[in-house]
Amino acid sequence: MASHRRPKQPSRTRVTVLTTAAAAAVALSANAANAAPSEKLSKDEVKAKVDNLYEQAEQATEKYNGAKEKQQKLQKEISTIQDNVARGQQELNKLRDGLGSLATAQYRSGGIDSSVQLFLSSNPDDFLDKASTLDQLSSQQVEALQKIQDKQRELAQERAEATEKLKDLAATRTELGNKKKEVQGKLAEAQKLLNTLTAKEKAALAAEQARANRSSTERVDLGDDSSASGRAAAAFSAAQSKIGSPYVYGASGPSSFDCSGLTSWAYAQAGVSIPRTSEAQANIGAHLSQSQLQVGDLVFFYGDLHHVGLYAGNGQVLHAPHTGAVVRYESISNMPFQFGVRV
Q1: Backbone angles phi and psi of 300, in degrees to 5
Q2: CA 327 to CA 254: how far, in whole Å?
Q3: Is 340 helix (H, G, I), strand (E, B) or coil?
Q4: Largest Cα–Cα distance of the chain, in whole Å?
């Protein structure tokens, strides 16, 4: 007689695991089917993004330039203070030696009284504060003590100032490093975008940039705007001699430039010292409208004034544009003009 046993049922745990696995497989299949492939940016879209990154890099570059200029200024100030402290310490030592000579003479003439012993201590301020003992000193000894007191106060102030400036220098160096990383990060991001292009697209972009550089490095017709003061004309002429030089962030000549590096270098050739950054250059004179501009005037762009060039006349600006470009002429209308400044 045949056996009619009930088939063995799978355990509840096993059913749950299998069900979950099947559901996950279905979900993954559905997601894979519905997922849209990542869209490749066109050459023009890449160029637009890269141009924006270059502008951000230039903003960071001007902050980097400002931190670098501050660092150099602090280093000079600290060096001066340290030299003053060293000289002051030598003067203080001489004063103390002189005071010691007075004490020696007094000893030989009959011994050193308690008041003289006191002013030979390391802190003559304590002695001078005790007016009752001043009568025991000669006028020569009082004068020597007062000189020592004044020199000690002066040295203490200078050392305190040097300490504060050293702290400021450390913070500035940190800021400088951060801004450098920011600039390099933006440029690396731009390069990463460019690397997504095909060889043909890269060649087309390079050709466009080369054409822009070539067409913008020819001398422009200054039209009726050729007037310029002697130094402005000299600065503009110096900048013209650098047409075709590459843009390099943080560079101020003589073979490569960023925007404010070009303008500060050009005016230095004319014997005029102007600040290093575009933001600082914007504050060295009265603001001019576009209709008031003369050749050689500084012209500023963007709301935060992170770009500067030299007015070239006839609605043109001579400037160092951005990474990948060279010093060249460009229409002033290609960028958001803010104002001009006559040096």
Answers
A1: -115, 145
A2: 12
A3: strand
A4: 144
The pLDDT tens digits of the residues spanning 270-319 come to: 999 999 999 999 999 999 999 999 999 999 999 999 999 999 999 999 99
Contact present, 300 and 339 (Cβ < 8 Å): yes
- Residue that has been written with the tokens 């002189």 in this structure: 98
Using DSSP's 3-state secondary structure scheme, residue 242 falls into: coil
Q: Give the distance from CA 180 to its chain's centroid.
A: 8
Residue type, 27: A
> Bigger pLDDT: 95 or 234?
234
Is the pLDDT at 51 greater than 70? The verdict is: yes
Structure tokens at 112: 């050193």
Q: What is the CA radius of gyration of the chain?
A: 37
- Tokens linked to 223: 């039209």
Say how many C-beta atoms besides its own lie within 10 A of residue 278's C-beta: 29
Best CA proximity match to 297, nearest among 239, 217, 220, 216: 239
Q: Alpha-carbon distance 255 to 240, whole Å?
A: 13
Closest CA to 133 of 152, 118, 149: 118
Catalytic residues: 259, 307, 319
* % of the chain surpassing 90 pLDDT: 39
- Three-state secondary structure call for residue 286: coil
Sequence-ordered strand ranges (E) for the chain: 287-288, 298-301, 307-313, 316-319, 328-331, 337-341
By the 8 A CB rule, do 328 and 240 touch?
Answer: no
Distance CA 58, CA 80 (A): 33
Cα separations in angstroms, 11 against 4, 5, 18, 23, 195: 21, 17, 11, 19, 56
Confidence (pLDDT) at 206:
83
The number of beta carbons lying within 10 Å of the beta carbon of residue 159 is 14
Can you give the pLDDT at residue 263?
98
Note the pTM of the prediction, 2 decimals.
0.64
323 φ/ψ angles, rounded to the nearest 5 degrees:
-55, 135
- d(CA 309, CA 277) in angstroms, rounded, equals 12
